[in-house]
Specification:
- By secondary structure, this protein is of the alpha+beta class.
- It has an 8-stranded mixed sheet. It has a 4-stranded antiparallel sheet with strand order 26-27-28-29, covered by helices on one side.
- Strand 3 and strand 4 form a beta hairpin.
- Helix 2 crosses helix 3 and helix 28 crosses helix 29.
- The radius of gyration is 58 Å and the shape is elongated.
């Protein structure tokens, strides 16, 4: 019956007759089928069978349903719709022919069924109207023996024959509720693996590509899935049309006949809904893979053309013979434009529904040639499509009509919207998309420059509040540098930096006192924390005092129309916290009323009855008015420079070559800088911290005792007096120098005799030193030692400066002075250790004779003796005695030669070698084992009792001399008496050894 319905026998006869008559046709059919099965259709099995099911449903006008059931190594694909017909069977058996030519369908070639050959050699189609099967084995049997040439072709192909050219009748029925079923017994495990993969990859794209299908059910041994309700998971936009005659001639001229007969075109864009709705029934679940967007173009089934838009595209692009790639040509160009138009419509719909569509604007590199064409066409379409929502009103704007302000956030955009037409919001991540859409950009600084007008302070405050997030970015703060700010005096200025933000700490009348001097205070109704981030300064007493306009007011307060008002404003600020005025030295210029009602600078005012009034020259200072003192209090007045005691000025990071203004009014400060600079050059010399006592030149001569007591008793004054200043030279080496106050007192304070206070003997000076210095006044004994040293009193030789050393040397050379041996020896020891030298050495010097008497001789007749053996050489001149480094220092200080510089010290004769007694070597380790005895010992022709030669060998002519020679050669001069004792009295050896235990 099937044979009668579908005419399969007749088809076989015609095909076999054709192959027999022309075996080349057999070869062509076999090659064509192999090309489709192994090439373009190798992995399109599921797609092609679903497409056939969609076509069948469309022909029948019923909702399409398809079942893929894979069990027992057999794939059954059942579908609803029009059943199999004789024309359909002929189409299946005729390559590149189709029974669907005049019907609207997705399939266009009638060759999609060849995809089954990728997995089976025995496909069967069962329908309600009958069944048909194809068989590789039966086809080979039908060919066998027909013709020799045909047998030869089969052998050449290793037995491979076209499977789908010879249909055979088949018995059976499709599953219940379905109209047709395709049954595919799988060839092998490779075919089974391919089927499993293709079924797992089936997704919503099938339903979107095949609108005739409403439901796809997939059932395997391991899985059961149902694909349906695709529109619940995707936003879908469809477009389509029919080419007119002229368009057909232009666009389809190079396309196959099958396509030329179908002038319809369609485009589908599908965007996943996020998130997808939950499944409505058990067994209908889907996972995230369902809404993943395929990254290839569907035409309308999947191709190998990549697409990077993140939206599924299904369009009737013409394909090449492999059905894998879109064919180039005018039809593709036209469909690209239609696709771009549809894409713009999709984005417009989504934007109207409130979706963010900027993520869907193509910005990156294209994934391929077709993707690049789509990018270009879409970016040509989108700028004229309403996509972007305006900040003001929320209407959709075309990108070409939209504007973004660089760096502006949502809050600031809300404030700008009324004055910037077309303003839209812009996130950092949207920059590339907005640029691709040709949205105009305005620099934030450009917009800020355009702000202004008559807006009230409250409007500006709201604007600043909208900047609260933006001002945390340093680059944005720079762009807001010219932001207008309303001031309390009614002006509108540009830039918040340096403006003062009023607060509750400062009364309004205090602020108004500085109006005429240009103090710029933000209007209270416009104050917002964002202004502080932009450089405005909270108007604390300190910040207001630091304002340049307040300084101008103070420095010109003597010429002000109302100086008392300026004084009141400044003192009110300082009185709130006197510490706020620290370091603001110029507040000393503020004029205040003295006791007589006259205006006097604060630094020339003293408190009535204070120490300052007691010691300072009344011609230089005046007492402060009592009512001013009572009103503002002593701490506030002292903070602006009024004196109750002596004052201190301080400066940090001071360059000596350019002293800061804070210290420039100090008397002789430039001279101090020159004197303390390394090597007398101020260039490159710096002081980290400088504290100086001011007004030293105003202290009267008879008040210095009291002044110094005050300086020594008050911590700040004491520190500024006694602490050395650390000067760092250009070579980064630090140097401790006298403080400014100590230097000034040493240089300028004179006593009644007209001589300086500095350089006199300290009340506790060494007696030997005191005899050569002038006595300090008795009142200095009441000062503590540090203060006395700081002001230049000399307690020890190390306290002497260069002038003091010169004075001591001059007085030491005075022949009228009597100096005993003990005193001169102590003094020489001290003087030899000095690192400071006067400019010129004295022409005469005091020396010590061998008889223990000191006398004054010309310096060129003196010699420095640095070792005891040279004391025997009275032929060399008068002795200046010193040891080690002290001897070298005395030689430099007095410009007197060392003994060995003027005498060779060579021993005349060799002497007789003798052993040093063992007891001596035991008592004094280090004594040489041998010494040289001389009947008469002479050195350089001068008789001596002992000597040590250049090699350390001891020589002696007497027992006393031997003891000294052995001690000096051993470096143990302190043991000379012990050595002499044991040499003179050997029987005391035990006694001396016992004593040595306790040395």
């Amino acid at each position: 019956m099937t044979d009668e319905v579908f005419g399969t026998a007749g088809i076989r006869e015609r095909v076999l007759a054709g192959w027999t008559a022309a075996p080349v046709r057999f070869r062509e059919d076999a090659n064509a089928e192999e090309e489709l099965a192994l090439g373009g259709y190798v992995d399109r099995l599921v797609i092609e069978l679903a497409q056939n099911a969609a076509d069948a449903a469309a022909r029948a006008g019923v909702p399409g349903r398809v079942l893929f059931e894979f069990k027992n190594n057999t794939l059954v694909v059942a579908n609803t719709g029009a059943p199999l017909t004789a024309e359909g069977v002929e189409s299946l058996a005729t390559l590149r022919a189709s029974a669907k030519r005049e019907e609207p369908s997705v399939g266009r070639f009638g060759v999609g069924f060849s995809a089954v050959l990728a997995v089976t050699d025995e496909p069967v189609v069962l329908s309600r109207t009958g069944g048909v099967r194809f068989s590789k084995a039966d086809t080979a049997a039908a060919i066998a023996g027909l013709a020799a040439d045909l047998d030869t072709e089969v052998r050449r192909r290793d037995g491979q024959v076209p499977v789908l050219r010879l249909p055979f009748e088949a018995d059976g029925e499709p599953p219940a509720d379905y109209d047709t079923a395709v049954i595919l017994p799988l060839r092998d495990e490779a075919a089974a693996a391919l089927v499993r993969r293709l079924l797992a990859e089936a997704d919503d794209a099938l339903l979107l590509a095949l609108p005739g299908l409403q439901r796809i059910e997939i059932e395997t041994d391991d899985d059961h899935r149902i694909l349906q309700d695709v529109e619940s998971r995707w936003h879908i936009h469809r477009a389509g049309g029919v080419f007119d005659t002229a368009e057909r001639e232009q666009l389809l001229a190079d396309r196959p006949t099958e396509e030329r007969s179908r002038p319809n075109w369609s485009v589908v864009w599908a965007l996943p809904r996020n998130p997808p709705p939950q499944p409505s029934a058990a067994g209908e679940a889907w996972d995230a893979a369902v809404v993943e967007v395929p990254r290839v173009v569907h035409a309308p089934t999947p191709t190998d053309e990549p697409v990077s838009l993140g939206v599924l595209l299904l369009a009737t692009f013409p394909l090449d013979s492999t059905r894998r790639h879109v064919a180039k040509g005018p039809l593709t160009d036209r469909l690209v434009r239609e696709t771009a138009t549809a894409y713009g419509e999709l984005l417009g719909e989504r934007a109207a529904d409130g979706d963010d569509v900027l993520r869907l604007v193509p910005t990156g590199l294209a994934a391929g040639a077709l993707d690049r064409m789509l990018h270009e066409a879409i970016l040509n379409q989108l700028p004229t499509t309403p996509l972007l929502r305006a900040v003001e009103g929320g209407s959709l704007l075309r990108p070409r009509d939209a504007v973004v302000v660089e760096g502006a956030d949502d809050a600031f955009n809300e404030k700008l919207a009324p004055i910037v037409p077309g303003l839209i919001r812009s996130r950092r991540e949207d920059r590339l998309a907005l640029d691709a859409l040709q949205v105009r950009r305005l620099e934030l600084a450009e917009v800020v420059d355009q702000l202004g007008g008559e807006e009230p302070p409250g409007w500006w405050r709201a604007l600043y509040a909208s900047l609260s997030t933006m001002v945390t970015d340093a680059l944005i703060r720079e762009s807001l540098g010219t932001l207008p700010v309303p001031l309390a005096d009614g002006r509108l200025v540009r830039g918040a930096r340096g403006l003062l933000l009023p607060g509750p700490e400062i009364p309004v009348d205090t602020l108004s006192a500085f109006d005429e001097y240009g103090v710029r205070v933000v209007h209270p109704d416009a104050v917002d924390p964002a202004l502080e981030r932009l450089g405005a300064i909270p108007a604390t007493p300190r910040s207001l005092l630091e304002d340049s306009a307040v300084r101008t007011a103070v420095e010109h307060s003597a010429e002000a129309d109302d100086p008392d008002s300026i004084a009141h404003a400044v003192l009110s600020l300082v009185a709130a916290d006197p510490a706020q005025a620290e370091g603001l030295w110029w507040l000393n210029d503020l004029v205040l009323r003295d006791a007589d009602g006259e205006l006097v600078p604060a630094n020339a005012l003293v408190v009535e009855g204070s120490d300052a009034q007691a010691i300072l020259d009344p011609d230089e200072v005046a007492p402060i008015a009592r009512d001013v003192l009572d009103r503002y209090g002593l701490p506030a007045l002292e903070a602006v420079g009024v004196l109750a005691t002596l004052g201190v000025v301080a400066a940090s990071d001071v360059a000596l070559e350019k002293l800061p203004e804070a210290v420039q009014d100090l008397d002789a400060i430039e001279d101090w800088a020159y004197d303390v600079a390394p090597e007398g050059s101020r260039y490159g010399a710096t002081v980290g911290e400088l504290e100086a006592i001011r007004d030293l030149d105003w202290i009267t001569d008879d008040n210095w005792p009291k002044a110094l007591q005050i300086m020594g008793s008050e911590p700040d004054l004491r520190r500024a007096l006694v602490t050395q200043v650390r000067v760092v030279g250009p070579d980064d080496r630090p140097l401790g120098v006298p403080s400014y106050a100590a230097w000034w007192i040493r240089e300028h304070v004179l006593l009644d005799d007209g001589e300086p206070l500095a350089g006199r003997a300290d009340p506790e000076a060494e007696p030997v030193l005191a005899t050569f210095l002038d006595e300090a006044p008795a009142w200095t004994a009441a000062l503590d030692p540090e203060v006395r040293t700081a002001i230049g009193l000399v307690r020890e030789v190390g306290d002497l400066d260069a002038d003091g050393i010169s004075l001591v040397l001059d007085r030491l050379a005075d022949p009228e002075r009597e100096v005993d041996a003990a005193s001169i020896l102590r003094l020489w020891t001290r003087l030899g250790t000095l690192a400071l030298f006067p400019g010129d050495a004295p022409e005469q010097t005091r020396v010590l004779d061998a008889d223990g008497v000191t006398r004054v001789i010309d310096a060129d007749q003196a010699v420095v003796i640095d070792g005891p053996m040279w004391v025997q050489r009275d032929d060399l001149g008068g002795f200046v005695i010193g040891s080690g480094a002290a001897a070298d220092g005395l030689s430099d200080l007095l410009d007197v030669p060392m003994a060995q510089e003027i005498a060779e010290g060579k021993i005349d004769g060799e002497g007789t070698a003798a052993d040093v007694p063992p007891i001596v070597r035991e008592l004094v380790p280090g004594v040489p084992a041998t010494w040289w005895e001389h009947e008469e010992l002479t050195v350089d022709g001068v008789e001596v009792s002992w000597w040590v030669d250049a090699d350390g060998g001891p020589h002696a002519a007497t027992f006393d001399g031997l003891g000294k020679a052995l001690a000096w050669s051993a470096g143990r001069w302190d043991r000379r008496h012990v050595i002499r004792a044991v040499l003179n009295e050997p029987d005391r050896s035990t006694e001396l050894l016992v004593d040595a235990v306790y040395d």
